[in-house]
């Protein structure tokens, strides 16, 4: 059976959040990894096999301080960036779709013109769009929740995601391109329409 190397980001989070150190290069079964990251439920099931004392070099400690700093600075109120950072219920309450549906949508939009930057991930951008669409929160409030610089940046982001949705998602699911005209006639026409058509 093939194996997957546990991603460094997940190793860091386990060490930072629950004090479990997994050595670099450790592996797991592929069924525990989705899109290069450990599945959230599996990540939270990890328990220490044994408790040992480990010595770290000064460079290891400096590296960990950098990781702690990066982790602290990247904490957001709502984080869609890593698949396991948000619970299933929080994702559904904010976006109106499940985490699996969110991941499916991301795959449609990955080739779009939505930009990824150091302070705004692609997934957080789509999460903002869906949250705003579902809840109707203002752009001003969105700047606080999603840590944008100003409401205009939120508006520009919403416009970009909306255009990407119209191009990469809507034709497959919300337009009539995903269904044949014969199927519409056979399965989705009302009896009065059928009488008129005949």
The count of domains is 2
Kindly state the percentage of residues in helix: 55-70%
Q: Based on CA inertia axes, which overall geometry fits?
A: globular
> Could you give the order of the helices and strands?
EHEEEHHHHHHHHHH
Number of strands: 4
Tally of contiguous helical segments: 11
Q: Averaging pLDDT over every residue, what do you get?
A: 81
Strand order of the largest sheet: 1-2
Radius of gyration: 22 Å
Oligomer: single chain
Protein structure class:
mainly alpha
Question: What proportion strand?
Answer: under 5%
**Distance between the ends:** 59 Å
Q: Mind summarizing the main beta sheet?
A: 2 strands, antiparallel
Uncertain spans, ≥5 residues at pLDDT below 50? 193-198
Verbal overview:
The protein is mainly α. It folds into two domains: 4-73, no CATH class; 88-176, no CATH class. The protein has eleven helices and four strands; from the N terminus they run βαβββαααααααααα. The strands form two sheets. A two-stranded antiparallel sheet has the order 1-2. A two-stranded antiparallel ribbon has the order 3-4. A hairpin with a 2-residue loop joins strand 3 and strand 4 (37-38). Helix 6 crosses helix 8 (151-168) and helix 7 (139-145) packs across helix 8. It is globular, with a radius of gyration of 22 Å.
């Amino acid at each position: 059976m093939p194996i997957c190397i546990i991603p460094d980001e997940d190793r860091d989070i386990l060490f930072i959040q629950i004090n479990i150190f997994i050595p670099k290069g450790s592996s797991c079964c592929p069924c525990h990894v989705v899109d290069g990251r450990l599945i959230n439920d599996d990540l939270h099931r990890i328990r220490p096999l044994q408790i040992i004392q480990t010595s770290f070099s000064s460079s290891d400690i400096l590296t960990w301080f950098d990781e702690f700093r990066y982790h602290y600075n990247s904490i957001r109120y709502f984080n869609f960036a890593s698949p396991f950072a948000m619970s299933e219920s929080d994702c559904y309450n904010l976006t109106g779709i499940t985490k699996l549906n969110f991941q499916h949508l991301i795959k449609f939009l990955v080739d779009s013109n939505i930009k990824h930057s150091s302070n705004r991930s692609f997934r957080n951008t789509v999460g903002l769009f869906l949250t705003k669409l579902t809840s109707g929160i203002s752009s001003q409030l969105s700047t606080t929740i999603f840590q944008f610089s100003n409401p205009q940046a939120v508006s520009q982001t919403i416009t970009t995601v909306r255009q990407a949705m119209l191009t990469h998602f809507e034709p497959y699911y919300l337009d009539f391109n995903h269904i044949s005209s014969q199927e519409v006639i056979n399965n989705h026409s009302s009896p009065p329409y059928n009488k008129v058509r005949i």
